[in-house]
Amino acid sequence: MLTLAPEVEVLARFGRALADPIRCQLLLALRDAPAHPADLADRIGVSRSRLSNHLACLRDCGLVVAVPDGRRTRYELVDERLGHALDVLRTVVVAVAADRTCPDADEKGCC
C-alpha cells in the first residue's frame, strides 16, 4: 500500500470534501458565518437528513466542528484560515480556468 506524506493526505481529504457541490456550498456558507443545520438546509435548499450526511462528512474530514448552542448545535469552520483558503482557491480557479469543466464530474463518495 502506498504511504502518503501527511500534507498529501490532508490535501486529498480536502479535495474529496470539495468534490461535492453541496459540501462546497456548506463550506462557503460557513465561511460567511457559523450556522445551525436547519438554517443551512434552508439556505442551500436540501433536506435536513441529506444535509446531516454532508455535515458529518465535513466533520470527519476535520473541516468543520459542531458547537453546542443551548439545545441546538451550531456548525462552523474549524479554523478561520480555511475561509481565507476557500476565497483564494475560488478566485484562482476562476481566474485560471473559468471556461473549463471537470471531465470526471460525477458523484463521488465522501472522505
UniProtKB/TrEMBL annotation:
Gene3D superfamilies the UniProt entry points to: Winged helix-like DNA-binding domain superfamily/Winged helix DNA-binding domain (1.10.10.10)
One biological process term in Gene Ontology: response to cadmium ion
Domain HTH arsR-type residue range list: 4-100
Lineage: Bacteria, Bacillati, Actinomycetota, Actinomycetes, Kitasatosporales
Signal peptide region: none
Gene Ontology molecular function, alphabetical: cadmium ion sensor activity; DNA binding; DNA-binding transcription factor activity; lead ion binding
Any one Pfam family match given in the protein's UniProt record, by short name: HTH_5
Stored SUPFAM superfamilies: Winged helix' DNA-binding domain
Cited NCBIfam families: HTH_metalloreg (NF033788)
Organism of this sequence: Streptomyces aquilus
Name this polypeptide is given: ArsR family transcriptional regulator
